[in-house]
Amino acid sequence: MTDANSDKPTSPQAGMFGLPDFDLKAIFERFAPPGFDFSRLLEQERLNLEALGAAQRAMLEGWDALAEQQGRAFRESLEAWQQATERQFSGSPASAEQQFEQARKGFEQTMANLQEMAEGVARSQQDAIEILRKRTEESIRSFFGEQSSK
């Protein structure tokens, strides 16, 4: 990036806090202890934020799938209720045994839908946890790899 008034490059933080030449990286590098690699720290944090974003996307996809499943289950239940009501008022009411069988099937379908939804939520949570676990493992490996090379 360059400043509009000159060809001088500016940092991504330029203009932050109302200061035209505010460069957070330059400030930290200036006051960092000897041997401290601020660029490496920034890169690690960038990777952490990417992993967090990926985990959030995995959770959002899980919630979207859950909402879709709930909508589908509601539509199916509503259609079954509508059909049962039409049969009841069509002049040939169902016997008690038929009504019981319809109720049993409806209950079993509801339980199957709930099981499917619970499994979907658990899958999306596991996906998000796995993304964060891998990033944590990479970060620890990177830290200890750096420490052992000193």
Q: Rg to the nearest angstrom?
A: 29 Å
Number of helices, where a helix is a run of at least 4 consecutive DSSP H or I residues = 3
What's the structural domain tally? Answer: 2
Helicity, as a percent range: over 70%
Task: Briefly characterize the structure.
The chain has helices at residues 24-31, 38-88, 96-148.
Salient structural properties:
150 residues; mainly alpha; 3 helices
Task: Tell me what the structure shows.
With 150 residues, the protein is mainly α. The chain has 2 domains: 1-31, no CATH class; 37-148. The protein is 75% helix and 0% strand. The protein has helices at 24-31, 38-88, 96-148. Helix 2 packs antiparallel against helix 3. It is rod-shaped. The protein starts with 23 loop residues before the first helix and ends with a helix.
Q: Could you give the topology of this structure?
A:
Blueprint: H1 24-31, H2 38-88, H3 96-148
